[in-house]
Specification:
The protein has helices at 2-20, 32-41, 60-63, 126-136, 138-144, 153-162, and strands at residues 49-56, 70-76, 81-85, 92-97, 100-104, 117-121, 164-173, 176-183, 203-208, 214-220, 237-242, 256-258. The chain is an alpha+beta fold and 283 residues long.
Length: 283
């Protein structure tokens, strides 16, 4: 399970980096499904404001090993602002404000951060980046370690076309056209650990409405390089794009601790409340 957990989780960061670099390797594969996909996206335009719901695939077992596997984000490009919450009724747990990440101390074990918020400019690289990926989970960390605003659905889809090896059309769902893009695994960076890469091309699924808006993207991974006998769950993740909030603001956050003043190697996630496995037994 542990090998699968790392490979599937790292896929999120790998995909985000690959799509960032996609402009340098535009696909020349103009098949009929590719043309239908491009036509479906023709009327779409990147949104200045949008909301998204991120969900990692897998079962409750995965919750015991990977924190923050589901969360909601709100983006306002004009303000350079991203707000991340556990769900719609929860207070913010992280911000991107003007290229700077601001992380709630509640994301780490009690006593790890001396003030309510930890902050750092982006991008975060090297061992500190690896520490945040471990402490936050690669899904949430993927949104904060670079200090950049995430793509909306239209941008995600267009960047996916750039690294697509093959496009097939899926049956319509709720009035949206579906497409499956087999992505070129050679466009993906390593997953962040020695020897960790993809042996199969990941698949990007897109769901596009009549006005060119993208309502959902989903990524399914190729098989990790080190499969084990208990790798039974298909990994990956989905992002659903939702109507934006009318007004996003950042309150006065009070005292902030700079990440550079903390030993990042000591940062760990708090106990995962959604884990239901008896990981310890009484003697």
């Amino acid at each position: 399970m542990h090998g699968q957990r790392r490979g599937a989780a790292s896929l999120f960061v790998m995909v985000m980096v690959a799509l960032t670099l996609a402009g340098a390797c535009r696909s020349e594969r103009e098949t009929e499904p590719m043309q239908r996909l491009q036509a479906a996206l023709a009327e779409g335009a990147p949104a200045d404001q949008f909301r998204f719901l991120y969900n990692a695939a897998g079962t409750r077992v995965n919750d015991c090993f990977e924190p923050n596997r589901s969360f909601i984000g709100d983006v306002d490009r004009q303000q350079g602002l991203l707000i991340l919450r556990r769900d719609v009724s929860s207070p913010p747990m992280a911000y991107i404000v003007g290229g700077r990440a601001v992380l709630s101390a509640s994301l780490f074990r009690q006593g790890s951060v001396p003030t309510p918020w930890l902050t750092t400019p982006g991008p975060v690289d090297g061992p500190v980046r690896a520490s945040l990926l471990r402490a936050l989970g690669t899904g949430l960390a993927g949104y904060v370690v670079d200090g950049k605003l995430p793509p909306d659905g239209v941008e995600f889809a267009r960047d996916g076309i750039e690294v697509a090896e093959e496009v097939t059309q899926l049956p319509e769902r709720d009035g949206a056209q579906g497409f499956a893009l087999r992505l070129d695994r050679d466009a993906f960076p390593d997953g962040g650990e020695p020897g960790e890469s993809l042996l199969e091309d990941p698949t990007l699924e897109l769901w596009i409405g009549s006005n060119g808006t993208v309502s959902r993207v989903a990524v399914r991974p190729g098989r990790p390089q080190k499969p084990s006998a208990d790798d039974l769950e298909v990994g990956g993740w989905t992002i659903d794009y939702l109507p934006p909030l009318d007004d996003l603001t950042v309150p006065d956050l009070g005292p902030l601790t700079e990440l550079s003043s903390v030993d990042a190697e000591t940062l760990r996630s708090p106990p995962i409340e959604t884990c239901r496995l008896p990981l310890t037994t009484d003697p």
